[in-house]
């Protein structure tokens, strides 16, 4: 009997511990579910409030410019090109050459030669390595806060959608400035290895060093 009692006394704390753990696990699960429900409720409420606020503030004409996505209206803020960007400000903007294209982030420069220029390459201090593979040159690399390459696919879609010009600016640290401008510019598709499909007449002070590459395919 004594041995059995000792055994029973040892089992009882173990069973209590198991019961406590089980209760704690259940409470934790309920707490997690409760937190999830609160988060979902807040998100749902925020969406509904946003939708109602937009509907109250916007006119019928304005609402026609919004796209519907799970009950929310989002204003289309992309532009076909930097030339058509309505604010006429230099900076980063969403560019969408055609309705079938995915918008991409581009840097528009509005201060040179009447503005409307999309910057697709910027180098000035060697902080970004431009010795890259085909995929990186196709998709783009770097940051618009520093040195970058926009990407061949973006260039192809932009220049094939409508007529573009090319402007190359060279600035020296001593303050000297040269430029080369071509009145037509188009990059072909990836299937043809992104050739320089079209290049117009040259004007400028830097000399014409690009015309000899007309029709040539891109290579890394």
Care to describe what's here?
The structure is a single chain. The longest helix has 56 residues, at 2-57. By secondary structure, the protein is of the alpha+beta class. The termini are far apart. A three-stranded antiparallel β-sheet has the order 3-4-5, with no helix packed on it. Strands 6-8-7 form a three-stranded antiparallel β-sheet. It is built from four helices and 13 strands. The protein has two domains: 1-67; 82-217, Gamma Fibrinogen, Chain A, domain 1. It has helices spanning 2-57, 60-63, 134-139, 152-161; strands at 66-69, 72-75, 91-95, 104-109, 117-119, 121-122, 141-142, 148-149, 166-171, 177-182, 185-187, 196-199, 202-204. Helices cover 35% and strands 23% of the residues.
Strand-pairing-aware structural class: alpha+beta
- Number of helices in the DSSP assignment: 4
How many DSSP E strands? 13
CATH topology of the largest domain: Gamma Fibrinogen, Chain A, domain 1
SSE series: HHEEEEEEHEEHEEEEE
Give the strand content: 15-25%
Distance between the termini: 88 Å
Would you identify the CATH H-level superfamily of the largest domain? Answer: Gamma Fibrinogen, chain A, domain 1
Which regions contain 5 or more consecutive residues with pLDDT less than 50? 1-48, 50-76
Strand order of the largest sheet: 3-4-5
| Overall pLDDT metric | 76
Shape: globular
Estimate the helix proportion, in percent.
25-40%
CATH architectural group of the largest domain: Alpha-Beta Complex
Rg over alpha carbons: 30 Å
How would a textbook summarize the main sheet? 3 strands, antiparallel
Number of domains: 2
CATH class of the largest domain: Alpha Beta
Organism: Anopheles gambiae (African malaria mosquito)
Domain Fibrinogen C-terminal: 73-220
GO cellular component, one term: extracellular space
Protein name: AGAP010760-PA
């Amino acid at each position: 009997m004594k041995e059995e009692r000792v055994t029973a006394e040892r089992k009882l704390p173990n069973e209590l511990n198991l019961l406590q753990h089980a209760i704690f696990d259940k409470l934790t699960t309920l707490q997690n579910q409760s937190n999830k429900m609160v988060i979902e409720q807040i998100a749902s409420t925020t969406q509904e409030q946003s939708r109602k606020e937009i509907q109250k503030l916007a006119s019928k004409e304005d609402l026609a410019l919004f796209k519907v996505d799970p009950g929310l209206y989002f204003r289309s803020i992309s532009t076909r090109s930097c030339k058509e960007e309505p604010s006429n400000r230099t900076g980063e903007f969403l560019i969408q050459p055609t309705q079938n294209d995915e918008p991409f982030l581009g840097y528009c420069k509005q201060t040179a030669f009447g503005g409307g220029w999309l910057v697709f390459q910027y180098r000035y201090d060697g902080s970004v390595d431009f010795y890259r593979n085909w995929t990186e040159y196709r998709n783009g690399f770097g940051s618009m806060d520093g040195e970058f390459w926009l990407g061949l696919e973006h260039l192809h879609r932009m220049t094939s959608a409508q007529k573009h010009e090319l402007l190359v600016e060279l600035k020296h640290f001593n303050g000297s400035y040269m430029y080369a401008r071509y009145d037509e510019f188009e990059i072909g598709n990836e299937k043809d290895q992104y050739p320089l499909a079209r290049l117009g007449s040259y004007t400028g002070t830097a000399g014409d060093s690009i015309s000899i590459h007309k029709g040539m395919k891109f290579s890394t």
